[in-house]
Amino acid sequence: METDRNARVRLAQLQLYVNNHINDQYLTPVLTVIVAALLTTWRPLAWVVTWAVVELAIIATYLTCYRRFRAVDRQPHEEPVWARRIAWAHGAHMLSWSSIIVWGWVPGDAANLMFTMLVHLGLVSATVAMSNPHRRLLLSDMSIPMVALLAPPLLSAGAFNTGLAMLGLFYCALMLCVAAKIHQTTAEAIELRLRNEELIARLERQTRIDGLTGVANRNHLLATGNAEIRRASRFGHPMALLMLDIDHFKSINDTHGHLVGDRVIKAVADACALSLRDCDCLGRMGGEEFVAILPETDLGAAVAVAERLRATVEALRLTHEGRPLVTTVSVGVTVLESASEPLANLLSRADVAMYRAKKRGRNCVETEVTSRALAWRPQDVAATV
Ligand SMILES: Nc1nc2c(ncn2[C@@H]2O[C@H](COP(=O)(O)OP(=O)(O)OP(=O)(O)O)[C@@H](O)[C@H]2O)c(=O)[nH]1
C-alpha cells in the first residue's frame, strides 16, 4: 500500500512536470528562433540553422511524449517507464541547448561568454521552476545546463573567468537548495492530496455499503431502486424487485450466538451477490432481510432469478463446530406495474409475497402483482414519452 502510494506520488509529480512543460509548444520554438538569430552574430548561418532545425525536431518529440502521457490511463507500476521516457525526451532538449556552449562559445570573447552563461542561467532557473516535482527529471534536466554554465569560464584562465565560475557555482548551489525545498513541498502536498482522495473514496464507500455483508446498504439500495424506476419508466422497460428473508434465523442466533448469525447473514449475501448480474443491485434492508433490484427483468425472469437464489442458499453447506447450519430463504417477487410507481409500492408487494412464502412453509418463492400490472405494458409508456 505504502509502495503503491509512493509510486502514485511520483506519477502525480510526473503529471505536474508534464503540465508545467506543456506550454513549451508556444514558448520554446520562439526562444529557439530568437537564440538562433543571436547566435548568427558569432557563428555561420548554416550551423545555426542546423542547430535550430534539430532543436525544433527535439521539441516536437518531447511534446509528443507528453501528449501520450496525458492521453493514456497510467498505472502506478508504469511510473518508472514514463519517468525514463520523459527524462530522455526532455534531457535531449537540454543537451541540445547546452550544445550551444560547445560550438557557439568563442574563447576570449567576453560578450559571447556572458551570452552563453545567461542562456544557461535561464535554463537552470527554468528547470528548477518547472522540473522540481520529480527527482529523476530534475537530475536529467539540471545537470547538463549546470555543467555547461560552469565549463566555459573554468576553461579560460584569469581572475575574471574564475570569478564568473565561482558566481555560477554559487548560483547552481542556491538553485539546488531551492529545488530540494520545492521538491519536498510539492511531494508533501501531493501525498496529502492522495491521502484525502483515498479517505473520501473510503467514506463514500461507507455511505453506500453495508458494513457486515459488503452489499448495498439500505440508503443506497433505496436510491438505486428509485433511479431504476425512473429509468425503466422513461424507456418503458420492465423492472423487478425481490425480497429475501432468512428462515428461522432467530433460532440460529439463539442456538449458536450472534457472531454465527452474522456469519450466516454474510454467507447468504455473498452467495446471492454472486448469483446476480453486475447490473442488479443486492442490498441489506436490515437484520436478515435483503432486497434485490433487477433492471430489465419481467415477472417470469424475476421468478426464475428468485428460484435460483433460493436454491443457491439452500445448497450452502455452512457448519459451526461440526454441526450443520441449515440455511434457507423465503423470497417475495414483484415487478414495476406502472410508470413512475413509488418504490414503496414495490417493497410493500414484495413484502406481502415474502410473508406468503413464509406461510407456505418457507424456502420457497411467491409473487405479488395487482391487476393493474396485467393492464400495463412497458411499450405503452415508450410510445407516449
Ligand atoms: N446475528 C444477527 N442477528 C440479527 C441481526 N439483525 C437482526 N437479527 C436477529 O434476527 C432475528 C430475526 O428473527 P425473526 O424476524 O423473528 O425471524 P426468523 O427467526 O428468521 O423467522 P422467520 O423469518 O419467520 O423465518 C432476530 O432475533 C434479530 O435479533 C444481525 O445483524 N445479526
UniProtKB/TrEMBL annotation:
Q: Which UniProt keywords apply?
A: Membrane, Transmembrane, Transmembrane helix
Q: What InterPro entries does its record include?
A: Diguanylate_Cyclase, GGDEF_dom, Nucleotide_cyclase, Rev_trsase/Diguanyl_cyclase
In the Enzyme Commission scheme, what number(s) does this protein have? 2.7.7.65
Which Pfam families does the annotation name?
A: GGDEF
* GO CC list: plasma membrane
One GO MF annotation is:
diguanylate cyclase activity
- List this protein's GO terms for biological process: cell adhesion involved in single-species biofilm formation; negative regulation of bacterial-type flagellum-dependent cell motility
Q: Which residue numbers delimit the GGDEF domain? A: 237-370
TM regions (residue ranges): 21-39, 45-65, 86-106, 163-183
Q: Which PANTHER family match?
A: DIGUANYLATE CYCLASE DGCM-RELATED, REGULATORY COMPONENTS OF SENSORY TRANSDUCTION SYSTEM
Protein name per the record:
diguanylate cyclase
